[in-house]
Amino acid sequence: MTSMPVSERLGAHVKRAEQALNAAKNAALKPAGLTVPQYSALLHLGENPGISAAALARACGVTPPTMNTVLKNLQELGLVERTPHEWHKNILETRLTPEGERARAAADARAVRLERALAAQFTDEERQTLVALLGRCADFLESSRTG
């Protein structure tokens, strides 16, 4: 099998777009005092109060040790609280504090502005096509891991 130039590798283009998005989100979130992983955790916690760290790690696409570090930092900032589950004492439930909810809302407003500006670079049809193509990429790559 012959080598393929980087310019022809779809993975390189997907990675470049992901890195550019993360850099832009980091810049947008910096004034809110949050990193992208912290923002992602707050966003998911806002929708899933009481979620475990392991489930939150899966939702955010990071490893459990990484999520534990993110949660420790958020707890030190007073943005989340972790309490033992009512029935499963070895599981900590994580919830936003009122300050965490304010931080999530402020950061989300910044992230949404960025997402809307990015979306505005495409027509409605192009956005739908892009979402469909990226979905196909993800579906194929997820199925190829198990097959």
Features:
6 helices, mainly alpha, 147 residues, two-stranded antiparallel sheet, 2 strands
Describe the model:
- This protein has 147 residues and is mainly alpha-helical.
- The protein is built from six helices and two strands; from the N terminus they run ααααββαα.
- Strand 1 and strand 2 form a beta hairpin.
- The relative contact order is 0.11.
Query: Level of helix content?
Result: 55-70%
Enumerate how many helices there are, as a single number: 6
Low-confidence stretches: none
What's the Cα radius of gyration? 18 Å
Helix/strand class: mainly alpha
**What's the rounded overall pLDDT mean?**
92
Domain HTH marR-type: 7-139
Keywords: DNA-binding, Transcription, Transcription regulation
Pfam family, one: MarR_2
Protein name: MarR family transcriptional regulator
In short:
The protein contains six helices and two strands, in the order H-H-H-H-E-E-H-H. It has 147 residues and is mainly alpha-helical. A hairpin with a 7-residue loop joins strand 1 (80-84) and strand 2 (92-96).
What secondary-structure arrangement, pairings included, does this model have?
Layout (H helix, E strand, L loop, with lengths): L9 H20 L6 H12 L5 H8 L3 H13 L3 E5 L7 E5 L1 H22 L4 H23 L1
Helix pairs in contact: 1-5, 2-3, 2-5, 3-4
